[in-house]
Specification:
6-stranded antiparallel β-sheet, about 325 residues, 9-stranded antiparallel β-sheet, 2 helices, about 45% strand, 27 strands, mainly beta, single chain
């Protein structure tokens, strides 16, 4: 098994990103080809093999330098850019640190790969919890299953949040303009959402996103002028991006308690993020310790948290 893994690593490519070498892992089947970077265990491309259509944002810094980062051990921003554990404050930037760390490739086949990140002296200095974070990607037909597995190896309870931030092309294949496209949600009820205020914190959360009886909502060019839309309370579990004739070309399915929709404010960026979350930013008025944060997750020693979401491409 070890020899097989070494062979697979040799077959992967390496690229230099700002003076660091990153392993690029390729997965493929008859329908799709994926590229995943070992840095952040980040999905970097989803390509339809027959048409060459690219469905994932290419991380062009003109709009946004990432494609699909994992958000761990925090989702969103913290009040005063810090969190508190047992009376001690720890500075922390938006979305935690896993997206900016090198993961170990632990297994790979033609259509599946698993990556691992473990706590170390660097992480413990800024986040006082031991953890093992594993991220898996599995291709099945025209679907991609993304799995997060968090394990607590220590006696102390592990407190964390985790989420996805994949950015999908909209318009797709440079066809039409974004404001002619639609979102489709698996509900016929208006969606209540929150907005981000100064400091990246949750502000007023009673805004309405109207959908028709079939769940469609046309994408307005001003939809993201105030940053992300934060949608709580399991109001939907499936979100599709649809062409101007209302045909879904990409669907994200999840069982997360909340999710975000985002595109850079006021930039006309040609992508929209559909983000399943197990956690979110602090409210503007939050005043508590890490254990008090809304939507936080806790694991006792030896316990495991495992969740997944799927990306389905309509080829």
């Amino acid at each position: 098994a070890t020899g097989f893994l070494v062979l697979k690593v040799v077959l992967n490519s390496y690229k230099k990103y700002k003076r660091r070498y990153v392993m690029e892992i390729k997965l493929e089947n008859e329908s799709l080809e994926l590229t995943i970077n070992s840095f952040g265990a980040e999905l970097k491309s989803i390509t339809g093999k027959e048409t060459g259509t690219q469905y994932l944002w290419d991380a062009d810094e003109k709009y946004w330098k990432r494609s699909a980062p994992v958000l761990f051990p925090f989702v969103g921003s913290l009040k005063d850019k810090k969190f508190t554990v047992d009376g001690t404050d720890y500075p922390m930037g938006q979305h935690g640190f896993a997206r900016d760390m090198e993961f170990e490739l632990v297994s790979q086949t033609k259509d599946e790969a698993w990556f691992s990140l473990k706590s170390n002296d660097e992480t413990l200095a800024k986040y006082p919890f031991e953890f093992v974070l594993e991220i898996g990607y599995k291709l099945s037909g025209s679907e991609i299953k993304v799995t997060w597995r968090v394990t607590n190896p220590a006696k102390k309870d592990l407190l964390f949040s985790i989420g996805g931030h994949p950015a999908f092309m909209c318009p797709v294949a440079e066809q039409g303009k974004q404001s002619d496209y639609y979102l489709k949600l698996d509900t016929d009820k208006a969606i209540t959402y929150g907005l981000i205020c100064d400091g990246g914190l949750l502000d007023k959360d009673d805004n309405l996103l109207n959908v028709d009886v079939d769940g469609y909502c046309q994408i307005d060019e001003h939809m993201f002028d105030k940053d992300a839309l934060i949608i709580e309370n399991r109001q939907a579990s499936k979100v599709s991006l649809c062409t101007p004739d209302k045909k879904p070309y990409l669907t994200v399915s999840f069982d997360a308690p909340l999710f975000g929709l985002w595109s850079p404010a006021g930039m006309g960026a040609p992508f929209i993020c559909i983000e399943p979350w197990y956690g979110r930013c602090d409210r503007a008025g939050f005043a508590g310790e890490l254990k008090d944060r809304e939507y936080g997750n806790s694991l006792a020693q030896g316990e495991k948290f495992e969740k997944s979401y799927t990306i389905a491409i309509e080829l």
